[in-house]
Amino acid sequence: FLSGKCTVYKLFGLCMVLVLVSLILLQLSCSGDMSSSGGGAMDDRRSSQHQQQQQPCPAETQAAAAVDDPTWGPHKLALIIPFRERFDELLVFVPFMHAFLNKKNIRHRIFVINQVDHYRFNRASLINVGYMESGNDTDYLAMHDVDLMPLNPALDYGFPEEGPFHVASPELHPLYHYKTYVGGILLLTKKHYNMCNGMSNRFWGWGREDDEFYRRLRKAGLQLFRPSGITTGYKTFRHIHDAAWRKRDQKRIASQKQEQFKVDTDGGLTNLLYQVDSRQEVTIGGAPCTVINTKLECDQNHTPWCLMA
Question: How many CB atoms lie within 10 A of CB 133?
Answer without folding.
Answer: 17
